[in-house]
UniProtKB/TrEMBL annotation:
Keywords: Iron, Iron-sulfur, Metal-binding. Its cofactor is [4Fe-4S] cluster. This is CoA-substrate-specific enzyme activase, putative. GO terms for molecular function: iron-sulfur cluster binding; metal ion binding. InterPro entries: ATPase_BadF, ATPase_NBD, CoA_activase_DUF2229, CoA_E_activase_dom, Dehydratase_Activator_Redct. Pfam families: BcrAD_BadFG (PF01869), DUF2229 (PF09989). Residues 661-871 form the DUF2229 domain. SUPFAM superfamilies: Actin-like ATPase domain (SSF53067). Residues 100-253, 309-562 form the ATPase BadF/BadG/BcrA/BcrD type domain. It comes from the Bacteria. The lineage of its organism: Bacteria, Bacillati, Bacillota, Negativicutes, Selenomonadales.
Length: 976
């Protein structure tokens, strides 16, 4: 205990979003440091630090961090002041300072030790220290064990843009056996380093000398990766780095007057403003039909016949024995997946075997669902597997026959399903935010506040004044949560506020403008939390039913669907032995490349119980055998036909003696006007170089932008690396415009992207060919004049360039004529067969880089797939004359076709941040009301697995549409 000297100590305290950091400068110059996670209670942790370093001396104490300013009645200095003071004390003058904390990353540019700019990361938990902690915990790893695991891993591709994408990607890779936990841990750390590197690149600041501060300075593999990335920089990590701001605060404290010194016992907190409150959850009691049973004992019946249902989810794995005769769940198991579905399923089998005991039973079928259904189906000798949306829908109808809306919230995925006469007609799954899922609730409360999951509901229902946190992302809410606790809010009010927040996020982000009916069923593991069901009832003012076993509804639905097939005769009864199934092991016996399409997927040969099964791929070609029997022959991929016509038959020639090479990015308007571009370049005497995919180049944007524009950046980056002589990237302002339309604009981003890329890529302007052009009749002459101006850069006669432009336009018209003839020839056949219209911009739906093999996923299920521009105008009056977007009009035209022809179905494909689609989305949904359709939003982080689930559900619903779900011979009861 430091109580001998009467010296006044100088101390600094930083309250961060995750940790409390404290420093004390001793008279001898020695520095004491401490750092501890505050779990939402910084005062308690601060007092804990003080008890460990108790002193009877007075102290001069300066606090920093925004939360500290609002919380403590102590001298406050900004973090910037503290950083500059610490740099001065240590005699450091770096170019950059990387402040890398639990939830906040900042790039700080400096000159002569003075801060010039602070560039924060986006307000998202992804790409922060806390994000890594969360991902490790999902795999059953602590931060320390995760770091240790990473030392033995290899890097794999992960969608680390946000928590949801990363969880899905990591889980599915583990589910498919594509990597290990060590690989995920290594990749998370590496991707975190790349994020920091890209932020530094975007800062455009000298980086010869870099200092790292913040908690991540303690992560040695991360720091080593940073050193590799910044190989041309001197990167320093100091002993003081983890508590750098607190050090600066202690130095500033030493400059305070003696009157500012206080005893620890005199430190006090401020009174804070009362936050906005929500109604107590219990006010919605009258709207809740909560059927969950506690303490119910399940009993396996001797001699009974069962279907075993397995729901291999991303967070948990569930298994049941479903009594065929009585329709009861006679045995069940519910446990964590921990990224390994095979092991989880074996543990479930062991538990079911224990519950069966010595009784003789008949397992006539096994049915699986969930995100890990593919690999689990293989483990069970290619048993039937069902899309999780359809499985949950089937169980919902069995529980509440007149259900019209299902809210399903699991640990990682959330689903919305809308019904019409017992048939699911609309659905949605969470895409870009984890705030409406169970994992957010668990991580925020169980992990962030150290409160057991089982206590959450009671604590929330005990709240009289829940705090209104709003519809915000996990990172914002976590910050608000900690802030509320720091300001003394009762934990019950915070917990109840978070429960409300999950549902507000779910309704805002997932349900959106969709209808919430009057018979609402709430299911999924989160439905076991009664307080969440109360929040749904309170916010929707609908009667909410929670089934007896909401966490097992996926299992029940898969069993019911298998039972339907048994009754129909499309599935045969078998005789499974649980103990024999437990003996099975899965081994990869090799791989081969599928040659069905250009994707050339790697297919694994998996051996289970001496049988070999093909597994993997982006389409349904290697689906389980039972499903293959139900699938029709493959449909026609008319997108491939369109691309062949555009890029091959009317594409570029290879000149024998070219004047040089001109590069064209394979992005944006190239997918619509390439025949014109290719012919123009050839007529100018140059060979055409189309860009290749460049993931690295995609990341060269200077700010957030839509995915197609990222691809354009990547295309230019690739062409520069290929050393082309010129780069052709015109400003395309408008497409062809029918007579009754005033305008036919291309998206604003697509029109201005050449200038954005020119700035980002620092291309020599003499090498850029960027004429403004438009393809409407009244602007063609103007466009030709703009093309003629290229003569100066190319050193050519202007008349020759103009003639080249005219021949290119004629070539493009020839392409359009043949395309129209192709449409007329095939239209009647298309309208008579099951066909999916991919409704979206051609640079999304026709691009192999952007569309995630979507055409292949559809045709492998037996449907034709076409683009919107393959359909002639439905009528001249369908689209209002004030519609100004070229591609949007094509989408609206396709919607009218789908409403008229029963074999046509629309799959709307958009990108996050798409300006025209965002403005027209309400119209799309209104026009498609009552129709079965699919809506997909993608970006560079969209994973194949979640994408496939949505597409699969869409096609499954199409197949179910128009026929009633078969009635079973007995009245199945989901309850016990």
């Amino acid at each position: 205990m430091d109580n001998i000297t009467k010296e006044v100590f100088s101390e600094g305290l930083e309250v961060g979003s995750v940790s409390v950091k404290w420093t004390r400068r001793m008279p001898s110059g020695k520095l004491l440091m401490d750092m501890v996670r505050h779990d939402g209670n910084p005062m308690e942790k601060f007092l804990e630090i003080l008890s460990h370093n108790a002193t009877k001396n007075k102290v001069k104490l300066v606090v920093t961090g925004q939360a500290a300013k609002e919380f403590f009645n102590l001298p406050y200095r900004s973090e910037s002041e503290c950083i500059e003071r610490a740099l001065k004390h240590l005699n450091l003058k770096p170019d950059l300072l990387l402040s890398l904390g639990g939830e906040n990353f900042s790039i700080i540019t400096l000159r002569d030790g003075q801060i010039r700019n602070i560039i924060p990361s986006s307000k998202c938990a992804a790409g922060t220290g806390e994000f890594i902690v969360q991902q490790f915990q999902r795999m059953g790893l602590t931060l320390e064990s995760g770091i240790q695991e990473s030392l033995n891993g290899k890097v794999v591709d992960l969608a680390t843009r946000c928590s949801v994408h990363c969880k899905s990607d990591a889980t599915h890779k583990l589910n498919k056996g594509e990597c290990s936990r060590s690989d995920i841990a290594k990749s998370l750390i590496n991707d975190l380093g790349k994020k920091v590197y890209k932020m530094v690149e975007a800062a455009r600041w000298q980086s010869r000398s870099i200092v790292v501060i913040g908690g991540l300075a303690l992560n040695k593999p991360f720091i080593e990766h940073l050193r590799e990335l910044f190989k041309d920089s001197e990167l320093k990590v100091l002993n003081e780095s983890p508590c750098f701001e607190a050090l600066g605060a202690s130095l500033l404290a030493s400059e305070l007057s003696s009157e500012d010194a206080v005893f620890y016992s005199a430190i006090s907190c401020k009174t804070v403003q009362e936050p906005i409150r929500m109604p107590p959850l219990r006010t919605a009691e009258s709207l809740l039909d909560y059927r969950v049973k506690s303490g119910y004992v399940r009993t396996v019946k001797e001699g009974a016949s069962y279907i075993m249902g397995v729901d291999a989810g991303s967070t948990t794995t569930k298994a049941i024995l479903f009594n065929q005769l009585k329709g009861t769940i006679d045995a069940s198991c519910y446990l964590r997946t921990h990224g390994n579905p095979e092991t989880a399923v074996k543990h479930c089998l062991q538990d079911l075997i224990r519950q069966v005991g010595e009784k003789k039973i008949n397992i006539v079928q096994i049915a699986v669902t969930g995100s890990g259904r593919g690999i689990v189906s293989v483990f069970f000798n290619n048993c039937p597997s069902f899309n999780e949306i359809l499985a949950h829908a089937r169980a919902a109808v069995q529980e509440v026959p007149d259900v019209d809306t299902v809210f399903e919230i699991g640990g990682q995925d959330s689903k919305y399903i809308s019904f019409l006469n017992g048939i699911p007609i609309d659905y949605a799954m969470n895409d870009g935010c984890s705030a409406g899922t169970g994992s957010f609730l668990e991580e925020s409360i169980a992990v962030g506040m150290s409160i057991a999951v089982g206590e959450i509901s009671k604590r929330a229902e005990d709240s009289f004044k829940p705090i209104a946190f709003g519809e915000r992302c996990a990172a914002f809410i976590n910050t608000d949560l900690r802030s509320a606790l720091q300001q003394g809010a009762p934990r019950e009010d915070v917990i109840a506020g978070l429960v409300y927040s999950i549902i507000r996020n779910y309704i805002s982000r997932l349900v959106g403008v969709r209808t919430v009916g009057h018979r609402l069923l709430f299911q999924g593991g989160v439905a076991l939390n009664r307080s969440v069901a109360l929040a749904i009832a309170s916010l929707t003012q609908r009667k909410v039913v929670v089934p007896s076993y909401p966490e097992l509804m996926g299992c029940v639905g898969s069993c019911l669907m298998a039972q339907d097939m048994l009754n129909e005769g499309s599935l045969r009864a078998k005789n499974y032995d649980l103990k024999e199934l437990l003996k099975g092991t899965m081994e990869i016996k090799g791989t081969f490349r599928c040659s069905a399409c250009e994707n050339k997927c790697e297919i694994k040969k998996i051996e289970v119980r001496n049988k070999e099964y093909p597994f993997g791929g982006l389409c349904s070609k290697y689906e389980v055998k039972e499903k293959q029997k139900r699938l029709k022959n493959e449909g026609q991929d008319l997108i491939a036909v369109r691309n062949h016509l555009m890029f091959e038959k009317y594409g570029a020639e290879t000149l024998r003696q070219p004047r040089g090479r001109i590069g064209v990015p394979l992005a944006l308007t190239t997918y619509e006007f390439y025949p014109f571009y290719a012919k123009l370049i050839n007529e100018l005497g140059f060979n055409v170089v189309l860009s290749s995919i460049s993931k690295e180049g995609n990341s060269k944007t200077l700010g957030p932008i839509c995915y197609p524009c990222e691809i354009a950046h990547g295309g230019v980056y690739d062409l520069i690396n290929q050393g082309v002589d010129y780069l052709f990237f015109p400003h395309v302002l408008a497409g062809e415009s029918p007579d009754h339309h005033l305008h036919s604009y291309i998206c604003g981003n697509a029109a201005i992207i050449p200038d954005l890329i020119r700035i980002a890529s620092k291309i020599d302007e003499d090498k850029l060919l960027q004429p403004p052009i438009a393809f409407s009749d009244e602007l063609k002459e103007t466009s030709l004049n703009q093309i003629g101006k290229l003569s100066d850069k190319l050193g050519m006669n202007k008349g020759s360039v103009l003639k080249a432009g005219q021949r290119a336009l004629a070539h493009y018209e020839s392409f359009r004529t043949e395309f129209e003839q192709f449409k007329k020839k095939n239209l009647n056949k298309i309208l008579a067969e099951p066909t999916v219209i991919l409704a979206g911009r051609p640079y999304v739906i026709c691009s192999s880089e952007a569309n995630l093999a979507l055409p292949r996923k559809i045709v492998s299920r037996g449907y034709n797939v076409i683009t919107v521009d393959m359909l002639p105008n439905f009528t001249d009056k369908v689209i209002s004359s004030d519609g100004v977007w070229y591609f949007t009009r094509q989408i609206i035209n396709a919607i009218h076709y789908a409403k008229q022809f029963p074999h046509l179905f629309v799959c709307l494909v958009s990108c996050f941040s798409c300006i025209p689609d965002a403005s027209m989305y309400h119209l799309f949904r209104r026009e498609l009301a009552g129709e079965v359709f699919c809506y997909l939003e993608i970006d560079s982080h969209t994973a194949h697995a979640g994408f496939e689930t949505r597409v699969g559900a869409f096609l499954d619903i199409v197949e179910l549409n128009g026929r009633k779900i078969p009635q079973s011979p007995v009245n199945f009861k989901i309850g016990g």
